[in-house]
Amino acid sequence: MATKPYFYQKDRLELRDAVRKLCNQFSLDYWEEHDRTGTFPDEFAQAFADAGFKGIIIPEEYGGGGGKIGDREEILYDCC
Question: What is the pTM of this model?
């Protein structure tokens, strides 16, 4: 069943889809292994940064994505 986004989320559908696609590249086994061993998920962190999500709310003039705080919240919601 597809969920209908709230009115304020419609402009973030592309962002949400991109984040979900990236997160789906990392299986539950991947996360369980890092939980079990207590290691940092370097591969995920690098993929997240490479996709441009790390600095999403930093202004563009400082090298960020120029997004709003809501963009960051969408990323955390869809990825975590």
Answer: 0.67
